[in-house]
Amino acid sequence: TEVTGKLEEAVRIWIKQIRQVLVESEQMRREADDIGPSAELEHWKTRMSSFNSLLDEIKSSRVKKIINILQAARSKTLKQWKELDGNITIAANEAKDNVRYLYTLDKFFGPLAKASPVTMMEHVPSLMNTVCMIYCTSPYYNTSERMTSLLLKITNQMINTCKTYLCEG
């Protein structure tokens, strides 16, 4: 029981730390007003990396041994642990899925940033079709908040490209 108590305390600390990571990942991001769409991809790549690292740690043999010991002892802390394990898996899957979908837009980011306004406009119909495809097929990215954020960043990039074009012309 002494060993079980120490293991339960360790798991409670992990639970607290994992909850903190999940809470921070859901908080509003503070971003510059003129940030472009490539920042959205970078955000999700960073988030994917973080959650995949956390998943690797949760699935490590050391953690599995502790969880198995607590299962044998019928510890009550495992209910919270299993719930958080599921939440981390969901967050990792969401980040991976969003990165996959946002990579389909990556080919447009260069023309949006470097083209003249006329050339840039040639890419807009394909870009919007791809955004529509993401909205219609992504299980995670099809919320108004996510789409608004993405479209705002695309618009920001178009405005910045036009400003650069006008100032250099």
TrEMBL record:
Organism of derivation: Podilymbus podiceps
Recorded superkingdom: Eukaryota
Gene that produces this protein: Dnah5_3
InterPro entries: DHC (IPR026983), Dynein_heavy_tail (IPR013594)
Residue ranges constituting the Dynein heavy chain tail domain according to the UniProt record: 6-167
UniProt GO cellular component terms: axonemal dynein complex
Gene Ontology terms, MF aspect: dynein intermediate chain binding; dynein light intermediate chain binding
GO biological process, one term: microtubule-based movement
Protein name: DYH5 protein
Pfam assignment, any one: DHC_N1
